[in-house]
Amino acid sequence: MKITLFSLVWDNAAGTDCRLFGSESEWFDYFSEIITADIVGVETSEAMGIRTALHEHDISRAYELWQTNFKCELDTYNWDKLTIAVGTGGEVLGIVSGEPPERWQASH
User: Fold this and answer.
1) CB-based contacts of 62: which residues, under 8 Å, 6+ apart?
2) pLDDT in tens, 7-36
3) How far, rounded to the nearest angstrom, does the alpha carbon of residue 67 sit from its chain's CA centroid?
4) Per-residue H/E/C for the chain
């Protein structure tokens, strides 16, 4: 059986971590909350552009605007899609496509 996971890896003032999501919509909602937390109450054209991009599910455009105008330049965020093969007992048999987050590689 193949399972597709969506990853978000970050390094910011709070630390370095990664999170795996079982669906793209879960990943999108989580990442959108991170981005919108920085623009709460901000009504500039840049903030409105971010909200519009998120409403249109254009995470690349929203991230670019956020990175340019609001995100701390020392913070990094990376995301990817990972397809893994899973055995009947739930064990990971291998990676079909994508690159697992480094922290995930160390623990699995």
Assistant:
1) 32, 35, 50, 53, 54
2) 999 998 888 999 999 999 999 999 999 999
3) 14
4) CEEEEEEEEEEECCEEEEEEECCHHHHHHHHHHHHHHCCCCCCCHHHHHHHHHHHCCCHHHHHHHHHHHCCCCCCEEEEEEEEEEECCCCCEEEEEECCCCHHHHHHC
Q: How many structural domains are present in the chain?
A: 1
What's the predicted TM-score (pTM) here?
0.80
Q: What pLDDT sits at residue 101?
A: 59
How confident is the model over 66-84, as pLDDT tens digits? Answer: 999 999 999 999 999 989 8
Q: Which residues constitute the domain of residue 96? A: 2-107
